[in-house]
Design a protein that fits this description.
Number of strands: 0
Largest sheet: none
Radius of gyration: 19 Å
Strand content: under 5%
Low-confidence stretches: none
CATH superfamily: Tetracycline Repressor, domain 2
Number of domains: 1
Mean pLDDT: 89
Structural class: mainly alpha
Shape: elongated
Order of helices and strands: HHHHHHHHH
CATH topology: Tetracycline Repressor, domain 2
Number of helices: 9
Helix content: over 70%
Length: 195
């Protein structure tokens, strides 16, 4: 691993633990460097944090898009597609550092970083919404789900997942209970949209 990658990795961990309050001295200590050595790789803390956030956001959305495409190609029942996608997202965030990292992405006080992160997420979400809409339209055509208010059903799905992730964030030491709640919430959602 290059020193630059090591710095990025350490910044990821510190950002997940402290948010934007992390210091260059903390990063330097974590990678056994002096602060000026970090500046030979990155011009500023803002640039370093920005690269870490952008890397994680792109990685997550690329994996998510691949998963949706895989499910579309390999599952015929919309229930299985949506359930497996929900399970995938929850599993991705089950690692406490990941969910804390994402919390700090949007709760940091650096407005420029927050806005840039929001723009990345909004742009990536456009493609995800298109892929999700195809799943729902297919389910509607196959008479597997209710056909009215598809956009609302999609937003409800995304809100359900956000609620599950919020629960995971607040109760990260209760993994078994979190899985049970995620399954219960999923079943309630599915019962509400299926035909």
């Amino acid at each position: 691993m290059s020193k630059k990658d090591e710095i990025l990795g350490a910044t990821y961990i510190l950002f997940a633990e402290e948010g934007y309050n992390l210091s260059m001295a903390d990063i330097a200590k974590k990678v056994n460097l002096k602060v000026p050595s970090i500046y030979s790789h990155f011009q500023s803390k803002e640039e370093l944090v920005d690269q870490v956030i952008e890397k994680e956001l792109n990685q997550y959305f690329n994996i998510l898009e691949e998963k949706i495409i895989f499910l579309n190609d390999n599952e015929t029942q919309i229930e299985e597609k949506l359930r497996k996608l929900c399970q995938f997202i929850c599993a991705y965030y089950r690692e406490p550092l990941k969910i804390r990292f994402w919390k700090y992405v949007f709760l940091n006080y650096n407005e420029e970083v927050r806005i840039k992160s929001g723009n990345i997420v909004n742009n990536k979400n456009q493609n995800i919404k298109i892929l999700m809409k195809r799943i729902y339209e297919e389910g509607s055509k196959k008479n597997q789900i209710k056909s009215e208010a598809l956009d609302g059903i999609i937003y409800l799905y995304l809100t359900m997942i956000q609620g599950i992730l919020d629960y995971l964030l607040l109760n990260e030491d209760m993994e078994e209970e979190s899985v049970k709640i995620a399954n219960t919430v999923w079943q309630a959602y599915w019962n509400g949209i299926k035909k």
